Protein backbone atom coordinates (compact mmCIF):
# COMPACT_ATOMS: atom_id res chain seq x y z
CA UNK A 1 0.00 0.00 0.00
CA UNK A 2 0.95 3.63 -0.56
CA UNK A 3 -0.79 6.27 1.56
CA UNK A 4 -0.44 9.97 0.73
CA UNK A 5 -1.68 12.94 2.74
CA UNK A 6 -1.81 16.58 1.73
CA UNK A 7 -2.64 19.58 3.93
CA UNK A 8 -2.29 23.34 3.86
CA UNK A 9 -0.92 23.98 7.37
CA UNK A 10 -1.60 27.75 7.35
CA UNK A 11 1.79 28.42 8.93
CA UNK A 12 3.79 25.44 10.12
CA UNK A 13 5.03 27.08 13.33
CA UNK A 14 1.49 27.85 14.46
CA UNK A 15 0.18 24.46 13.31
CA UNK A 16 2.89 22.68 15.30
CA UNK A 17 1.76 24.46 18.46
CA UNK A 18 -1.89 23.54 17.83
CA UNK A 19 -1.62 19.84 16.98
CA UNK A 20 0.19 19.22 13.68
CA UNK A 21 3.06 17.40 15.40
CA UNK A 22 0.69 14.96 17.09
CA UNK A 23 -1.09 14.39 13.80
CA UNK A 24 2.21 13.63 12.02
CA UNK A 25 3.26 11.27 14.81
CA UNK A 26 0.03 9.32 14.37
CA UNK A 27 -0.40 9.33 10.60
CA UNK A 28 -0.15 6.16 8.55
CA UNK A 29 0.93 8.16 5.49
CA UNK A 30 4.06 7.21 3.56
CA UNK A 31 4.25 10.65 1.91
CA UNK A 32 2.98 13.98 3.27
CA UNK A 33 2.68 17.15 1.18
CA UNK A 34 2.45 20.47 3.04
CA UNK A 35 1.51 23.90 1.75
CA UNK A 36 1.67 27.44 3.15
CA UNK A 37 4.54 26.50 5.45
CA UNK A 38 5.49 30.19 5.81
CA UNK A 39 8.84 29.48 7.48
CA UNK A 40 12.50 28.99 6.73
CA UNK A 41 13.88 25.66 8.01
CA UNK A 42 15.99 27.39 10.66
CA UNK A 43 12.87 29.05 12.07
CA UNK A 44 11.35 25.69 12.97
CA UNK A 45 11.89 23.68 16.14
CA UNK A 46 14.15 20.68 15.50
CA UNK A 47 11.36 18.12 15.87
CA UNK A 48 9.20 19.99 13.36
CA UNK A 49 12.03 20.69 10.93
CA UNK A 50 13.43 17.14 10.98
CA UNK A 51 10.80 14.73 12.32
CA UNK A 52 12.16 11.32 13.17
CA UNK A 53 11.62 8.67 10.51
CA UNK A 54 11.04 11.12 7.65
CA UNK A 55 13.06 12.50 4.77
CA UNK A 56 11.93 16.09 4.36
CA UNK A 57 12.47 19.06 2.07
CA UNK A 58 11.12 22.56 2.61
CA UNK A 59 10.94 25.02 -0.28
CA UNK A 60 10.30 28.45 1.26
CA UNK A 61 9.39 31.53 -0.74
CA UNK A 62 11.97 34.21 -1.47
CA UNK A 63 9.37 36.60 -0.04
CA UNK A 64 9.90 35.56 3.58
CA UNK A 65 6.91 34.64 5.67
CA UNK A 66 4.71 33.76 2.72
CA UNK A 67 3.75 30.62 0.81
CA UNK A 68 6.22 27.73 1.11
CA UNK A 69 5.74 24.04 0.37
CA UNK A 70 7.25 20.88 1.83
CA UNK A 71 7.41 17.15 1.26
CA UNK A 72 8.01 14.39 3.78
CA UNK A 73 8.59 10.79 2.80
CA UNK A 74 9.46 7.69 4.79
CA UNK A 75 11.48 6.49 1.77
CA UNK A 76 14.37 8.58 0.53
CA UNK A 77 13.65 10.12 -2.90
CA UNK A 78 16.01 9.63 -5.80
CA UNK A 79 15.74 13.28 -6.82
CA UNK A 80 14.41 16.52 -5.32
CA UNK A 81 13.29 19.44 -7.51
CA UNK A 82 12.10 22.87 -6.44
CA UNK A 83 9.77 24.56 -8.89
CA UNK A 84 8.70 23.55 -12.37
CA UNK A 85 11.06 25.54 -14.57
CA UNK A 86 9.28 28.88 -14.19
CA UNK A 87 11.24 32.10 -14.11
CA UNK A 88 8.44 33.84 -12.23
CA UNK A 89 7.31 31.16 -9.79
CA UNK A 90 10.20 28.82 -8.95
CA UNK A 91 11.34 30.99 -6.02
CA UNK A 92 7.80 31.67 -4.82
CA UNK A 93 7.36 28.58 -2.61
CA UNK A 94 4.65 27.18 -4.86
CA UNK A 95 5.88 23.75 -6.00
CA UNK A 96 8.24 21.01 -4.85
CA UNK A 97 8.77 17.57 -6.30
CA UNK A 98 10.19 14.20 -5.23
CA UNK A 99 11.08 11.56 -7.79
CA UNK A 100 11.27 7.86 -6.95
CA UNK A 101 11.91 4.85 -9.15
CA UNK A 102 8.26 4.56 -10.15
CA UNK A 103 6.64 7.81 -8.97
CA UNK A 104 6.94 11.57 -9.25
CA UNK A 105 5.03 13.32 -6.45
CA UNK A 106 4.57 17.07 -6.13
CA UNK A 107 3.37 19.42 -3.41
CA UNK A 108 1.46 22.33 -4.96
CA UNK A 109 0.29 25.63 -3.50
CA UNK A 110 -1.58 27.29 -6.33
CA UNK A 111 -2.17 31.04 -5.96
CA UNK A 112 -5.55 31.94 -4.48
CA UNK A 113 -6.16 35.05 -6.55
CA UNK A 114 -8.53 37.96 -5.98
CA UNK A 115 -10.91 39.17 -8.64
CA UNK A 116 -10.00 42.50 -10.21
CA UNK A 117 -6.50 42.66 -8.73
CA UNK A 118 -2.92 41.84 -9.70
CA UNK A 119 -3.24 38.68 -7.59
CA UNK A 120 -5.75 37.28 -10.08
CA UNK A 121 -3.47 38.16 -12.97
CA UNK A 122 -0.69 36.29 -11.19
CA UNK A 123 -2.95 33.28 -10.74
CA UNK A 124 -3.83 33.24 -14.43
CA UNK A 125 -0.14 33.31 -15.40
CA UNK A 126 0.53 30.45 -13.01
CA UNK A 127 -2.33 28.40 -14.47
CA UNK A 128 -1.00 28.82 -17.99
CA UNK A 129 2.53 27.76 -17.06
CA UNK A 130 1.54 24.94 -14.75
CA UNK A 131 -0.82 23.29 -17.20
CA UNK A 132 2.01 23.12 -19.72
CA UNK A 133 4.20 21.56 -17.05
CA UNK A 134 1.57 18.97 -16.12
CA UNK A 135 1.43 17.87 -19.75
CA UNK A 136 5.22 17.71 -19.97
CA UNK A 137 5.46 15.72 -16.76
CA UNK A 138 2.80 13.27 -17.95
CA UNK A 139 4.81 12.66 -21.14
CA UNK A 140 8.05 12.26 -19.19
CA UNK A 141 6.50 9.81 -16.75
CA UNK A 142 4.99 7.69 -19.51
CA UNK A 143 8.35 7.50 -21.25
CA UNK A 144 10.11 6.53 -18.00
CA UNK A 145 7.47 4.07 -16.78
CA UNK A 146 6.51 6.22 -13.79
CA UNK A 147 3.27 7.52 -12.30
CA UNK A 148 2.63 11.15 -11.31
CA UNK A 149 0.75 12.48 -8.28
CA UNK A 150 0.34 16.21 -7.66
CA UNK A 151 -1.12 16.82 -4.21
CA UNK A 152 -1.89 20.13 -2.63
CA UNK A 153 -4.00 23.22 -2.28
CA UNK A 154 -5.24 23.86 -5.81
CA UNK A 155 -7.36 26.85 -4.68
CA UNK A 156 -10.15 26.07 -7.15
CA UNK A 157 -13.45 24.34 -6.45
CA UNK A 158 -14.18 22.44 -9.63
CA UNK A 159 -17.93 21.89 -9.50
CA UNK A 160 -21.02 22.97 -7.60
CA UNK A 161 -20.72 19.93 -5.34
CA UNK A 162 -17.26 21.14 -4.28
CA UNK A 163 -18.47 24.06 -2.16
CA UNK A 164 -21.45 24.61 0.08
CA UNK A 165 -22.51 28.10 -1.01
CA UNK A 166 -21.78 27.84 -4.71
CA UNK A 167 -24.59 30.17 -5.82
CA UNK A 168 -23.11 33.08 -3.87
CA UNK A 169 -19.54 32.45 -5.06
CA UNK A 170 -19.87 32.37 -8.85
CA UNK A 171 -17.93 35.64 -9.14
CA UNK A 172 -15.43 34.77 -6.41
CA UNK A 173 -11.82 33.74 -7.04
CA UNK A 174 -11.62 29.99 -6.65
CA UNK A 175 -14.96 29.37 -8.36
CA UNK A 176 -14.75 31.53 -11.46
CA UNK A 177 -15.90 29.87 -14.71
CA UNK A 178 -12.46 30.24 -16.28
CA UNK A 179 -10.75 28.67 -13.25
CA UNK A 180 -13.16 25.74 -13.25
CA UNK A 181 -12.59 25.32 -16.98
CA UNK A 182 -8.84 25.19 -16.34
CA UNK A 183 -9.31 22.31 -13.90
CA UNK A 184 -11.38 20.53 -16.54
CA UNK A 185 -8.42 20.89 -18.87
CA UNK A 186 -6.16 19.30 -16.24
CA UNK A 187 -8.47 16.29 -16.30
CA UNK A 188 -9.44 16.08 -19.96
CA UNK A 189 -6.51 17.62 -21.81
CA UNK A 190 -3.57 16.77 -19.55
CA UNK A 191 -5.10 13.41 -18.61
CA UNK A 192 -5.03 13.49 -14.81
CA UNK A 193 -7.64 12.05 -12.45
CA UNK A 194 -9.11 13.77 -9.40
CA UNK A 195 -8.61 10.74 -7.17
CA UNK A 196 -10.90 11.61 -4.27
CA UNK A 197 -13.76 12.58 -6.58
CA UNK A 198 -13.31 9.32 -8.48
CA UNK A 199 -13.69 7.49 -5.16
CA UNK A 200 -16.67 9.61 -4.05
CA UNK A 201 -18.41 10.81 -7.22
CA UNK A 202 -21.66 12.07 -5.75
CA UNK A 203 -20.75 14.79 -3.26
CA UNK A 204 -21.46 17.21 -1.75
CA UNK A 205 -17.85 17.69 -0.70
CA UNK A 206 -16.18 16.24 1.19
CA UNK A 207 -14.90 19.73 1.95
CA UNK A 208 -11.30 20.36 3.01
CA UNK A 209 -11.27 24.10 3.84
CA UNK A 210 -13.53 26.18 6.06
CA UNK A 211 -13.14 29.89 6.72
CA UNK A 212 -12.27 30.91 10.26
CA UNK A 213 -15.00 33.56 9.96
CA UNK A 214 -18.47 32.99 11.35
CA UNK A 215 -19.84 29.47 11.72
CA UNK A 216 -18.41 28.03 8.51
CA UNK A 217 -16.78 25.05 10.23
CA UNK A 218 -19.71 24.29 12.53
CA UNK A 219 -22.14 24.45 9.59
CA UNK A 220 -19.79 22.54 7.26
CA UNK A 221 -19.95 25.49 4.85
CA UNK A 222 -16.68 24.52 3.24
CA UNK A 223 -14.83 24.26 -0.05
CA UNK A 224 -13.13 21.22 -1.58
CA UNK A 225 -9.95 22.77 -2.92
CA UNK A 226 -7.29 20.29 -1.73
CA UNK A 227 -6.78 17.61 -4.36
CA UNK A 228 -4.63 14.66 -5.28
CA UNK A 229 -4.39 14.58 -9.07
CA UNK A 230 -2.85 11.39 -10.43
CA UNK A 231 -2.08 9.69 -13.69
CA UNK A 232 -4.79 7.15 -14.57
CA UNK A 233 -2.97 3.93 -13.65
CA UNK A 234 -2.14 5.15 -10.15
CA UNK A 235 -5.60 6.68 -9.71
CA UNK A 236 -7.13 3.33 -10.60
CA UNK A 237 -5.29 1.77 -7.66
CA UNK A 238 -6.90 4.10 -5.10
CA UNK A 239 -8.89 2.13 -2.54
CA UNK A 240 -9.93 4.76 0.02
CA UNK A 241 -9.95 8.48 0.62
CA UNK A 242 -10.77 10.60 3.62
CA UNK A 243 -10.74 14.17 4.84
CA UNK A 244 -9.36 14.24 8.37
CA UNK A 245 -11.75 16.90 9.63
CA UNK A 246 -11.17 17.98 13.23
CA UNK A 247 -13.87 16.81 15.63
CA UNK A 248 -14.54 20.39 16.77
CA UNK A 249 -13.61 23.97 15.94
CA UNK A 250 -11.26 24.31 18.93
CA UNK A 251 -9.29 21.22 17.87
CA UNK A 252 -8.37 22.56 14.43
CA UNK A 253 -4.69 23.19 13.77
CA UNK A 254 -5.32 24.73 10.34
CA UNK A 255 -8.25 26.12 8.38
CA UNK A 256 -7.67 23.13 6.05
CA UNK A 257 -7.89 19.43 6.91
CA UNK A 258 -5.59 16.68 5.65
CA UNK A 259 -6.82 14.82 2.57
CA UNK A 260 -5.52 11.25 2.70
CA UNK A 261 -5.66 8.66 -0.09
CA UNK A 262 -4.60 5.00 0.13
CA UNK A 263 -3.47 3.20 -3.03
CA UNK A 264 -3.08 -0.53 -3.54
CA UNK A 265 0.28 0.14 -5.14
CA UNK A 266 3.90 -0.25 -4.04
CA UNK A 267 6.31 2.68 -4.03
CA UNK A 268 9.81 1.90 -5.24
TrEMBL record:
<feature type="active site" description="Proton donor/acceptor">
    <location>
        <position position="153"/>
    </location>
</feature>
<keyword id="KW-0378">Hydrolase</keyword>
<feature type="binding site">
    <location>
        <position position="155"/>
    </location>
    <ligand>
        <name>Mg(2+)</name>
    </ligand>
</feature>
<comment type="similarity">
    <text>Belongs to the DNA repair enzymes AP/ExoA family.</text>
</comment>
<keyword id="KW-0479">Metal-binding</keyword>
<dbReference type="InterPro" id="IPR036691">
    <property type="entry name" value="Endo/exonu/phosph_ase_sf"/>
</dbReference>
<feature type="active site" description="Proton acceptor">
    <location>
        <position position="256"/>
    </location>
</feature>
<feature type="domain" description="Endonuclease/exonuclease/phosphatase">
    <location>
        <begin position="6"/>
        <end position="256"/>
    </location>
</feature>
<feature type="site" description="Important for catalytic activity">
    <location>
        <position position="226"/>
    </location>
</feature>
<feature type="binding site">
    <location>
        <position position="256"/>
    </location>
    <ligand>
        <name>Mg(2+)</name>
    </ligand>
</feature>
<feature type="site" description="Transition state stabilizer">
    <location>
        <position position="155"/>
    </location>
</feature>
<feature type="binding site">
    <location>
        <position position="8"/>
    </location>
    <ligand>
        <name>Mg(2+)</name>
    </ligand>
</feature>
<dbReference type="GO" id="GO:0008311">
    <property type="term" value="F:double-stranded DNA 3'-5' DNA exonuclease activity"/>
</dbReference>
<dbReference type="GO" id="GO:0006281">
    <property type="term" value="P:DNA repair"/>
</dbReference>
<dbReference type="InterPro" id="IPR005135">
    <property type="entry name" value="Endo/exonuclease/phosphatase"/>
</dbReference>
<feature type="binding site">
    <location>
        <position position="255"/>
    </location>
    <ligand>
        <name>Mg(2+)</name>
    </ligand>
</feature>
<protein>
    <submittedName>
        <fullName>Exodeoxyribonuclease III</fullName>
        <ecNumber>3.1.11.2</ecNumber>
    </submittedName>
</protein>
<dbReference type="InterPro" id="IPR037493">
    <property type="entry name" value="ExoIII-like"/>
</dbReference>
<dbReference type="InterPro" id="IPR004808">
    <property type="entry name" value="AP_endonuc_1"/>
</dbReference>
<dbReference type="Pfam" id="PF03372">
    <property type="entry name" value="Exo_endo_phos"/>
</dbReference>
<dbReference type="GO" id="GO:0046872">
    <property type="term" value="F:metal ion binding"/>
</dbReference>
<feature type="active site">
    <location>
        <position position="109"/>
    </location>
</feature>
<feature type="site" description="Interaction with DNA substrate">
    <location>
        <position position="256"/>
    </location>
</feature>
<feature type="binding site">
    <location>
        <position position="153"/>
    </location>
    <ligand>
        <name>Mg(2+)</name>
    </ligand>
</feature>
<keyword id="KW-0464">Manganese</keyword>
<keyword id="KW-0460">Magnesium</keyword>
<feature type="binding site">
    <location>
        <position position="36"/>
    </location>
    <ligand>
        <name>Mg(2+)</name>
    </ligand>
</feature>
Amino acid sequence: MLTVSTVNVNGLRAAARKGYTSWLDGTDADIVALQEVRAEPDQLAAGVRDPEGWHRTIAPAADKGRNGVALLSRREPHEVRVGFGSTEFDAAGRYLEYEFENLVVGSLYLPSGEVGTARQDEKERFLDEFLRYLKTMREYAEAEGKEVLVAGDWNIAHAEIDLKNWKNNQKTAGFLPEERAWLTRVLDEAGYVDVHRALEPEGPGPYSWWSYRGKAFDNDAGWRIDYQMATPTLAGKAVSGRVERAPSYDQRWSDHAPVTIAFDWALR
